[in-house]
């Protein structure tokens, strides 16, 4: 664990002399010319759609480095938007390298600017989360009728594609495939579905070999001309449910490698899930930071370079 005396400097937000395209819950995004973006992943953490006041040390680096790992892992399967994650190779102005280089190192990607699909491409390999709630209510998830008698967190015979809308605020909304086709067209929908399931299968098989079960995950795709490419983050603890394989037991909630540590704390103190969010105790911050780092080390087989 990180002792309080050794807590590293965290990155809450970045202020670069580049056009700011957007500042999301976690990422700061800048324009680099007309066709590239600089994505900086901070240590901000959101829970229940509210950004918490405490940054989580190393979180941004973990999310970036896991995505870089998967982009390389899947590169023969699908092209992606990553140009480089080496700030020395990004062609940034000397002033930015000098003033912000230490802050940006390890948490920054230079990417091609694509046109994002207006849906989240969610794949579920286990029945959990909102999918479990839908199953209990209707026996189906996003139009997929599932077998009767499934247990909470039970593995499905085959992963299912359960897309969602992209909400500008609040929660994304689950939609069925018919609605997906209406929004993006049959051809693009078919391609996104096939790629999502194929990527999930390959990635979850690899993760399982490292002791991690990926219960579900969210992909984002964009169009670069007429080519569909993988964008944003890929199979990180923020876009996926990661469960320790050696503690998996269907019929109950699972222990988690992701920010569930924070969610559980907030539920325990009965926070009303409305801004402002409460300060997190140092031990919760430290435990969450370590959980993020543990995921990277298991997947990549090496320690995160601090």
Plain-language structure description:
This protein is an alpha+beta fold and 306 residues long. The chain has two domains: 106 residues, Phosphorylase Kinase, domain 1 (2-Layer Sandwich); 132 residues, ATP-grasp fold, B domain (D-amino Acid Aminotransferase, Chain A, domain 1, 2-Layer Sandwich). Helices cover 31% and strands 24% of the residues. The protein has seven helices and 16 strands. Strands 8, 9, 12, 13, 14, 15 and 16 form a seven-stranded antiparallel beta sheet that branches. Strands 1-2-3-7-6 form a five-stranded antiparallel beta sheet. Strand 14 and strand 15 form a beta hairpin. Helix 1 packs parallel to helix 7 and helix 4 crosses helix 5. The relative contact order is 0.17. The N terminus is likely disordered.
What value does the average pLDDT take?
Answer: 94
Estimated share of beta-strand residues: 15-25%
Pattern of helices and strands: EEEEEHEHEEEHEEEEHHEEEHH
Q: Rg, please?
A: 19 Å
Low-confidence stretches: 1-6
Number of helices: 7
CATH class of the largest domain: Alpha Beta
Helix content: 25-40%
What is the number of independent domains?
2
């Amino acid at each position: 664990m990180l002792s309080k005396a050794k807590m590293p400097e965290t990155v809450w937000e970045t202020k670069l002399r580049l056009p700011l395209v957007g500042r999301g819950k976690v990422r700061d995004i800048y324009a680099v010319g007309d066709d590239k973006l600089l994505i900086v992943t901070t240590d901000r953490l959101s829970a229940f759609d509210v950004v918490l006041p405490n940054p989580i040390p190393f979180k941004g680096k973990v999310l970036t480095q896991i995505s870089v790992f998967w982009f390389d892992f899947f590169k023969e399967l699908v092209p992606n938007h990553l140009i480089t994650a080496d700030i020395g190779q990004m062609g940034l102005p000397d002033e930015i390298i000098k003033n912000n280089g230490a802050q940006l190192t390890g948490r920054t990607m230079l990417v091609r600017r694509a046109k994002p699909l207006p849906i989240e491409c969610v794949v579920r390999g286990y029945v959990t989360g909102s999918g479990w709630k839908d199953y209990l209510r209707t026996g189906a998830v996003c139009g997929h009728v599932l077998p009767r008698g499934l247990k909470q967190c039970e593995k499905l015979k085959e992963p299912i594609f359960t897309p969602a809308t992209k909400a500008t605020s609040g929660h994304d909304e689950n939609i069925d495939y018919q609605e997906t086709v209406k929004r993006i067209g049959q051809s693009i929908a078919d391609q996104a579905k096939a790629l999502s399931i194929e990527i999930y299968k390959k990635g979850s098989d690899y993760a399982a070999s490292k002791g991690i079960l990926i219960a579900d995950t969210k992909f984002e795709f964009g169009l670069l001309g007429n080519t569909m490419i993988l964008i944003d983050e890929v199979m990180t603890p923020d876009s996926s449910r990661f469960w320790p394989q050696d503690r998996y037991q269907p019929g109950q909630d699972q222990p988690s490698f992701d920010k569930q540590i924070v969610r559980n704390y907030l539920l325990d103190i009965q926070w009303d899930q409305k801004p402002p969010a409460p300060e997190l105790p140092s031990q919760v911050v430290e435990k969450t930071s370590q959980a993020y780092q543990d995921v990277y080390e298991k997947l990549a087989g090496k320690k995160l370079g601090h």
